């Protein structure tokens, strides 16, 4: 699996790395290479702490680079892309070039002083393709993805308000706001609107916004300044830092002794910044990484601390109020003391409760007033409005009653101070538990971020490339091209490639692959993985936010932001929920009040301490505070958050709620063959020559024709041909007039001879007759599940190469298990029918489509969709990407090409077929929990509101006091979050010993409801972990 991991690392997250072949189709740059300049021109580069490779060729200044994107027409396969890329890279002044055959684009990073766009266009046209310069890359670079942390959102009303405000801002293409993460993700055009203006747009709606990232192609670091800073020193520091190449922006905060610097990691790094600050101040000021945790995590901790303190303070005041109104009244000697009159009919107990409940109402509960005011200002009432209305009604009626008693000699007052105080206390407790629970939904991300080591060992080199020393540094201070020493048992501090040593690295924490992967010189490594044995020297290539670990975290975070379509249901309800509840509350009070005035019910129904107005008021308040829009709003996002995090820990990267929702509906999976059902590394197992010629000469022609192809079969032929030559880097004969036909073969001219390598249909379409002997050989190979590749020279077949691609372990068990899940499996391949049938029979797939071109794969998927099926496509290659996009759910094998990974909805990082089952099973379990969340949230409101309104009171005498209703409301949100949290204990299905009768398995609702009830016992344990 070593190749799997490396391919995933570079293809999925960086688009660059050690494997050159896997990146020809990526528009993202690989490892930075030196500029190719004409002879005699000085090369600009960096020295520093690098080794000899980095130290050689330093110059005075670096030439300006430019990025150009060209439209290239006529490319049909990866070999075409390779030809274009090679032609461009031969030009002087080219820094890097990447070609995307799927979209017909070529991106070139070049030095305008040595080569122009016209020269690049001519070079592409010289190899037989049409090229045209386009300027869309400039537009694309201006489209950024900004993330904001938003404080104060309480329910779906809040998120809808913020989302609408952001969407209405000019330059915003898309905005998504998540209540569970309290974050907004905005795709915007920085030419029209800036990140600061986005923050202003959010703050105009009444919420506070904190910038997480602007999405610009630069890194940002916060440094703590230790020393005395005056205005003169700040000016010196600012000018010194700004003079560094790559520094974009610098901001000083004198009060916190903090400086925030934005920079381009390709040109400078944190150590350079710290050294400049120290030297500019003559050592009087030292800089270090600002001791601050992740902004979102720190905010979450601050919010938890704030609600805990508020709840504890509210208890200090509320418990005496509760005791004096509900307990002490049944203790005679205490009751007499509390009922002593102070002024007219106002008693000591009433005055005492009034004094204690006032700080709870206006100080501790002040946040609900602020939230309600902002909500009403923006015209979207939320839960804060319901709480403020309910508690204010109870409090101010009690104040009125007590004041009336103080001014009257015969009025017996009844107060509800305990109602308002206990309501606020229980709601604060609920919010505290809810935030605790929501914090656990992103636990998987926190665990991923904790994988990075705190320190790293930096190697220092002299000008001749010899190691002269080493020092321990903060891992956050690693810069590009640094060489890091990794000892046995230590963690790899940064993404990079091995320049010295060999070892085995445990990558299970990133990829889920349990077996350690062998590493040697030239192999890529991932930051956060563990070195098992041997010492490694690693050249850092992707640091900080560019690392694979950070990229995985960002992908999971983006997935958690993406809304599932089922969430629209909650959005529609939330829009009318609060106004409807307020209306129901008023109607409840009015109905009971009018009924009491008209004596429509017996007077005995009214408690001794109340009158009909007060009874009606209590029913109205109960209705208002029992309704909970938060439970509806949290039903989907919390489950999606946990599921995406759990999926990542199992090596399954799910790109959002849409993918989860579609995956749980899948009833048909289309598998590609090569690299999906098979290992994807074909090997030559036999060769049959039909003409008298030397075997090595035969393979020289075949390898020269296939060397530019990306197809696994072509690679197998080239690798086999290399074994026939003693030298390590054999140079193949030059191939001209290269023509590639996707899924069939290639035609070339080699040494003035026409060479055709491909399948049977390609030979027939090229006018070559297939002799009987060749046909018999092909049939025999097909029966053995092998692929016969025909080689023809000068229109005559000279031999057949037999290539075999081993089937992946457990492929048969996976197909059987999918059948037990009522999911039909279909195989679509470009290979011949004989090989396809043999593979299908071996893995247990009955429906097979062979000799299919890429566009035909997509057509087959669409045909299945038209027949009413929900289709998933599993593939790994460029030719699978159209089908991956067309399918309801695209699952890309992690070791596949970056084009396939970009096109997919789910990435299987381990490249194991078992993870197809994991993805579907996890999505089904997630959406079962979402459905149960909605059943609970809706059922709670549908049942709770009528009970709070008093429908049971006439027949049973049962009524729900407002403070109990408030406690129930708080518990509803907590229970929904905790039910989603139980997904953390998800275990992937075991695929062995599958029972054939399991196909008739179905979810039984009564059993699942029983399970739901039994799991609620675990809620307190979850919160106390």
Automatic annotation (TrEMBL):
<dbReference type="InterPro" id="IPR027256">
    <property type="entry name" value="P-typ_ATPase_IB"/>
</dbReference>
<feature type="domain" description="HMA">
    <location>
        <begin position="219"/>
        <end position="285"/>
    </location>
</feature>
<dbReference type="InterPro" id="IPR018303">
    <property type="entry name" value="ATPase_P-typ_P_site"/>
</dbReference>
<dbReference type="GO" id="GO:0140581">
    <property type="term" value="F:P-type monovalent copper transporter activity"/>
</dbReference>
<dbReference type="InterPro" id="IPR023298">
    <property type="entry name" value="ATPase_P-typ_TM_dom_sf"/>
</dbReference>
<feature type="transmembrane region" description="Helical">
    <location>
        <begin position="310"/>
        <end position="331"/>
    </location>
</feature>
<dbReference type="InterPro" id="IPR036412">
    <property type="entry name" value="HAD-like_sf"/>
</dbReference>
<dbReference type="Pfam" id="PF00122">
    <property type="entry name" value="E1-E2_ATPase"/>
</dbReference>
<dbReference type="GO" id="GO:0016020">
    <property type="term" value="C:membrane"/>
</dbReference>
<keyword id="KW-0472">Membrane</keyword>
<keyword id="KW-0479">Metal-binding</keyword>
<dbReference type="Pfam" id="PF00702">
    <property type="entry name" value="Hydrolase"/>
</dbReference>
<dbReference type="InterPro" id="IPR044492">
    <property type="entry name" value="P_typ_ATPase_HD_dom"/>
</dbReference>
<keyword id="KW-0677">Repeat</keyword>
<dbReference type="InterPro" id="IPR017969">
    <property type="entry name" value="Heavy-metal-associated_CS"/>
</dbReference>
<keyword id="KW-0186">Copper</keyword>
<keyword id="KW-1278">Translocase</keyword>
<keyword id="KW-0547">Nucleotide-binding</keyword>
<feature type="transmembrane region" description="Helical">
    <location>
        <begin position="934"/>
        <end position="954"/>
    </location>
</feature>
<dbReference type="GO" id="GO:0005507">
    <property type="term" value="F:copper ion binding"/>
</dbReference>
<dbReference type="InterPro" id="IPR023214">
    <property type="entry name" value="HAD_sf"/>
</dbReference>
<dbReference type="InterPro" id="IPR023299">
    <property type="entry name" value="ATPase_P-typ_cyto_dom_N"/>
</dbReference>
<dbReference type="InterPro" id="IPR036163">
    <property type="entry name" value="HMA_dom_sf"/>
</dbReference>
<feature type="transmembrane region" description="Helical">
    <location>
        <begin position="382"/>
        <end position="400"/>
    </location>
</feature>
<keyword id="KW-0812">Transmembrane</keyword>
<dbReference type="InterPro" id="IPR006121">
    <property type="entry name" value="HMA_dom"/>
</dbReference>
<feature type="domain" description="HMA">
    <location>
        <begin position="66"/>
        <end position="132"/>
    </location>
</feature>
<dbReference type="InterPro" id="IPR008250">
    <property type="entry name" value="ATPase_P-typ_transduc_dom_A_sf"/>
</dbReference>
<comment type="similarity">
    <text>Belongs to the cation transport ATPase (P-type) (TC 3.A.3) family. Type IB subfamily.</text>
</comment>
<feature type="transmembrane region" description="Helical">
    <location>
        <begin position="351"/>
        <end position="370"/>
    </location>
</feature>
<feature type="transmembrane region" description="Helical">
    <location>
        <begin position="420"/>
        <end position="437"/>
    </location>
</feature>
<dbReference type="GO" id="GO:0005524">
    <property type="term" value="F:ATP binding"/>
</dbReference>
<feature type="transmembrane region" description="Helical">
    <location>
        <begin position="615"/>
        <end position="635"/>
    </location>
</feature>
<dbReference type="GO" id="GO:0016887">
    <property type="term" value="F:ATP hydrolysis activity"/>
</dbReference>
<feature type="domain" description="HMA">
    <location>
        <begin position="144"/>
        <end position="210"/>
    </location>
</feature>
<dbReference type="Pfam" id="PF00403">
    <property type="entry name" value="HMA"/>
</dbReference>
<protein>
    <recommendedName>
        <fullName>P-type Cu(+) transporter</fullName>
        <ecNumber>7.2.2.8</ecNumber>
    </recommendedName>
</protein>
<keyword id="KW-0813">Transport</keyword>
<keyword id="KW-0067">ATP-binding</keyword>
<feature type="transmembrane region" description="Helical">
    <location>
        <begin position="960"/>
        <end position="982"/>
    </location>
</feature>
<dbReference type="InterPro" id="IPR059000">
    <property type="entry name" value="ATPase_P-type_domA"/>
</dbReference>
<feature type="transmembrane region" description="Helical">
    <location>
        <begin position="576"/>
        <end position="595"/>
    </location>
</feature>
